[in-house]
Design brief:
By secondary structure, this protein is an alpha+beta fold. It is built from five helices and seven strands, in the order αβααββαββββα. 31% of the residues lie in helices and 18% in strands. It starts with a helix and ends in a 10-residue tail after the last helix.
């Protein structure tokens, strides 16, 4: 399903935030030192984060607003040191209890892949989806379950 259709579904059936402005995206990219890929840019121009299935604070799937995205090792351990995980992994989706879906923003990827970051085993991560578009499509079909744990 194309990203535009997925974003329309987020707006119709879930709990999106107001869109990010191009200036907010530019400020975010300057802060983190990497550019959003096409999928993430489309998402954040549509909504600056969203809760899927349940509103905050009950949402198990909370796609973070730009202001809350930070390195996964900082989100999980509060430490920004290489011993605590790769500097290219960023927390993108809060799954509750310091468990996250993280995105790898290494510039070698044209579309950033997503990984499961279970706080008890991080910095080990398990692949979930090769792009945000695929992740969002599968998440929206999941009924609120962590679809990658059921495979």
């Amino acid at each position: 399903m194309p990203i535009d259709s997925l974003l329309a579904e987020v707006s119709r059936h879930h709990f999106p935030n107001a869109p990010a402005t191009p200036a907010q995206i530019a400020a975010f990219e300057a802060r983190v030192g990497w550019k959003l890929d096409a999928d993430l840019r489309a998402f954040y121009l549509h909504c600056d984060g969203a809760a899927l299935f349940e509103p905050v604070p009950d949402a198990d799937y909370r796609i973070l607003p730009l202001a809350e995205i930070r390195r996964a090792r900082v989100a999980i351990f509060g430490r920004d040191e290489d011993a605590y995980g790769s500097p290219s992994l960023y927390a993108l989706v809060d799954m509750q209890d310091t468990n996250y879906v993280v995105v790898d923003v290494d510039p070698k990827f044209p579309r950033y892949p997503l990984f499961d970051a279970f706080h008890e085993t991080f910095p080990k991560v398990d692949p979930i989806a090769p792009s945000f578009e695929e992740f969002l499509a599968r998440a929206l079909k999941s009924g609120g379950r962590s679809f990658w744990l059921e495979e």
